[in-house]
Design brief:
12 strands, two-stranded antiparallel sheet, TIM Barrel, eight-stranded parallel β-barrel, binds flavin mononucleotide, 359 residues, single chain
Amino acid sequence: MVKQITDEIELSSGHILSNRAALAPLTNKQSNLDGTLHDDEYHWLLARSGHFGIVETCAAYVSAQGKAWEGQLGIANNSHLEGLTKLATGINQKGSFSLIQLYHGGDRAVLSTDPITSSATDFAREATYEDLESVKRDFVQAAKRAEQAGFNGVEVHGANGYLFTQFISRTLNLRSDEYGGSVENRSRLLVDTVRQIKEEVNSSFSVNVRISPVDTWSRSGLILEDAIQISKRLAGEGIDMIHLSLRDASGPAPFEADTRSVVEIIRESVSTDVKIVAAGGIKNYTDVSKALATGLDIVSVGRAGIVQADWPFHVQDPNFDLPTIPWSQELLSSQAVSPRFYEYLKKFSGLVEGGNPLR
Ligand SMILES: Cc1cc2nc3c(=O)[nH]c(=O)nc-3n(C[C@H](O)[C@H](O)[C@H](O)COP(=O)(O)O)c2cc1C
């Protein structure tokens, strides 16, 4: 049977998603300075709830050491719980699956007073065993907080150049201990973190991981062969979904010889108990059909979800397309994008009026 975006889909943890559409995690810098929830962030996500099967938050820092930007959402201590509970309750009540992304920036955590990474850089020191034990503990505590707040699940952010990617990368990780060298060692921090979270939460709480399976814009030591092994190991931990961060959700790896789509390759590598989610350039009906045909289970969108809060409804129409960029503040404000989020979007090339020009 041909998959449709409107299909209900069941996760291994027993949750049923109302459709195959996910709002990708989108940093929006709308939280209060102490990481507590701001109304702008609540309204932005609630406007998408009830439309997307999955509504995922922005990357939320699990510790002060991992915090990367002002206005970032926090899940690092109990002062964050009240806002997170309000957010999870709101998303759940509208019938979407509520997912919070758990984040540590590693050497990108510019607000940290003591940043760590796999191998020392100009900005961060090499993490000791003790550091890595605290990182795992912080993720476990954050996951438990998410469960207490009422989220349906967490996604460990293992993608986009942050702490876990800094360990997985063949070029950034130069360690010779059990966290460096083989792919098993380079992915140890991520896999151990996931395992420890699974041990501490209820079996109905959904645990998921986002990875960058391959290099996208430039080379940074991520290759398909490693991604296959890592996906298999993560699947072995009993997670619900692997969320791939890609440039083209239906395309091949930009720097590799294999011309098959990355999704197809990862889909074939792991059990169908684990759902494959991917984001990367999906805008319209044709993009969705193509992505589902390559084996994708759940279609994740970032930019399309910014400009069209009820995108999953519109994309069922073969004639639908997104408004052309650059988008105006008026348009985005009609989609519950606050002035602060609009300001942040200016840094993305060609996306909004008054922002950086299209490269
Ligand atoms: C404004 C903005 C903020 C983002 N923030 C996050 C984030 O917090 N966590 C994350 O994993 N990816 C983040 N991403 C990447 C998106 O989740 C997504 O992978 C990317 O936008 C590609 O999908 P698209 O082509 O549908 O926009 C962000 C992207 C944008 C444009």
